[in-house]
Design brief:
This protein has about 90 residues and is an all-alpha fold. It has 2 helices and no strands. The longest helix is centred in the N-terminal third of the chain and has 39 residues. About 0% of the residues are buried.
């Protein structure tokens, strides 16, 4: 009888590990699905960073092309018209 009382008293302590493991197993698919959604979607912050990087590259390209245009115009001003090269932010 005494052994049965000890086993019954220790049962919640022994089952505690099993319950948390079972809970982890049940939660796992939801955690995996959440991670997959995070990996496949773009946050607003990430989107802003990407747009800023794209615009800086476009503005750098426009700056290079305008400098080259100015250099050509200084060498030969007769054939130089208005700038019609690349402009950042405008769909070309």
């Amino acid at each position: 009888m005494r052994r049965v009382m000890i086993v019954v008293a220790a049962l919640p302590l022994l089952a505690g590990g099993c319950i948390s493991t079972a809970a982890s197993v049940v939660k796992a698919p939801f955690k995996v699905a959440g991670k997959a959604v995070d990996w496949t979607t773009t946050s607003q912050d990430e989107s802003d960073r990407n747009y800023g990087r794209k615009m800086r590259k476009a503005e750098a390209r426009e700056g290079r092309e305008r400098r080259d245009w100015v250099k050509r115009c200084r060498k030969n001003p007769e054939v130089c018209g208005s700038y019609d090269g690349y402009v950042a932010g405008r769909d070309n």
